Amino acid sequence: MSFSILFAEHAGHLRREIREEPAFFRDLNLDQIVEAITAGKQEYDLKSFFYIALPDEEAVRYRQEVMQELGNQTLLAAIRSFADNMRAIRGYLGSVEKLYYHYHKAGWFLEAVDRYCAAVTRLAEDLNAAGLRSRGFLAFREYVAAYARAGEFRALVAETRELKAELTAIRYCLLIKDGAIKVRHYEAEADYSIDVEETFAKFKQGAVQDYKAKFASGMGMNHMEAQILDCVAQLYPDSFARLDAFCAKHSRFPDETLVVFDREVQFYMAYLEHTDKLKQAGLRFCYPLLSATCKEIYDYDGFDLALAAQLVGRKEAVVCNDFHLQGRERIIVVTGPNQGGKTTFARTFGQLHYLAGLGCPVPGRQAKLFLCDRLFTHFEKEEDINNLRSKLQDDLVRIHDILDRTTANSIIIMNEIFTSTTLNDAVLLGRKIMQRIMELDLLCVCVTFIDELAALSEQTVSMVSTVVPDDPARRTYRIVRRPADGLAHAISIAEKYRLTYRLLKERIPS
Questions:
Q1: CA 461, CA 480: separation in Å to the nearest integer?
Q2: CB–CB of 476/466 below 8 Å?
Q3: Per its UniProt record, what SMART domains does this chain match (predicted)?
Q4: What is the pTM of this model?
Q5: CA–CA distance from 240 to each of 172, 232, 234, 236 (Å)?
Q6: DSSP at 48
Q7: Per-residue pLDDT tens for 191-235?
Q8: With the C-alpha atoms ordered 33, 37, 40, 46, is the resulting torsion angle positive or negative?
């Protein structure tokens, strides 16, 4: 098994490509988060890394160590330099595939190998000087050092330098007459261009037009240049034969482990670059304590990462919230008026646990979270005419399927279920589902208009979205731990039928 900067040795079996995002991603807006994180890094195909949950605390700590180590500016500069070199090498090789002329392709291939040798040598030196501490980067430093010392790589470096020096030393002459070009060996003819320029320099008066020919500096080569190069190859057959042999021998020159590292390390770089923008706006991130057994959890000053990115982009304030569960507490029941931040709070809870399970720093100044085996969401959806089920029936089928697949180590996020039935039926169904969740001892967040669910047992905790005391129509988006006030359902009905004080006042002429 080759080295991985993303997966600890015992988690190497997870190194697979997953193209389909988890079912809960869209409900929690994790699809938006991953899209924002990976924007501009499409060449690395990073999204699949965000779809793979880690199996245990040790695998998470391995990533946390690596992520924290990248705060070392010496190391960060080394990784960015290596990434730039590898990007240039991919550019060279990609262009080689598109070029037409044989020795033009061979020349750029030699340049790619030369840059690769320099990049690996520089990386080994930089890692040695970086003062590393994480298991991931210490192991990688050992790998790179051993690779750079190996006879095969040292031979590649020497062969590349010798061949490039040999080709660079080639000199030839072009004789152009009557539309024909003749290529022959350079015979130490004198170069009179400098003498001519010095002779006529005294006649120069002010700024004059430059009539010297300009040669293209890009990777392109026209048919005339290609024919000249072919003629040069005939003049120096041994050198160009060595170039052909070099290209054939080293056609797969990049080391696979270094190629994989270059891609995998961008998972960390992309996440840190994204969160740095939010840190600059005053938001805080932390590396959470994570446990697969203890369900006493908390997060202080947490926020919805997807919403925060939008608000910061618009230079608007981000409201942070706290939560904690202790002892037998397992279920947070969130009530309060509509548009008060309840769904955002539920999404935040899910995002925090999922991102923590990837080994990433999470929103908040301090956090302790649960490493779940699976995460499930049940958000309100529109009726699907294709399944011929009513909205209530569809809700019941979906939540039944979720409860069938959960274990005691799962997390469920439920948002506004049973809104399509009467209050009495919603209370009855909600109690039965909550009872099942409590029997399974699951961690859960339930956003609901049913205040009765907030005080079912010692396992439930009531949290309420608040409003401005002097103006109940204005939401604070703060979710606080306190008993349900019994107004959530009444307010939602009043808003539905436009019977709130504000709406009535708008309808009654003054």
A1: 11
A2: yes
A3: MUTSac (SM00534)
A4: 0.87
A5: 14, 9, 8, 7
A6: G
A7: 788 888 888 887 777 666 766 655 555 567 888 888 999 999 999
A8: negative
